[in-house]
Amino acid sequence: MSTDTTIERERKMTTVDVTPIEVEPGETLVFTNDSTKYPRFEIEFDDPNFASPGGKLEGKDEVRVLVKKAGESKYNTRHFTKQNAPVDAGPFSVRSCIGGCS
User: Fold this and answer.
1) HEC secondary structure over 14-69
2) Residue 68's domain is classified under what CATH number?
3) What integer is the mean pLDDT of 78-86?
4) Can you give the pTM of this predicted structure?
């Protein structure tokens, strides 16, 4: 006699604060990472000239991004497991305004 068993589990969800970031041109955004599961990450902007043109936007503990111009840009993050498997998140948004955004 054979018995089949199916176990249905509820999906785990993680909530992340994705409030749009507001900065001024010339300010530095600091993205931090304290994950042990994803020890390395990188940031990629839709507009490559929006922030840190030509800069290295990857790191382990933090990535510093110099905002170069006013406007809005979407960005994605890519986290890497210890085995170097990528996990993508986003898009997120950052808005840069001369004199501050209101």
Assistant:
1) CCCCCCCEEECCCCEEEEECCCCCCCEEEEEECCCCCECCCCCCEECCEEEEEECC
2) 2.60.40
3) 93
4) 0.73
Considering the domain boundaries, does residue 43 fall inside one? yes
Domain range for residue 37? 21-96
For residue 13, being part of any structural domain is answered with no
User: What pLDDT score does 78 carry?
Assistant: 92
Would residue 66 count as lying in a domain? yes
Find, among 99, 92, 59, 52, the residue nearest to 73 by Cα: 92
Tens of pLDDT, residue by residue over 13-37, are 444 455 557 888 988 888 888 888 9
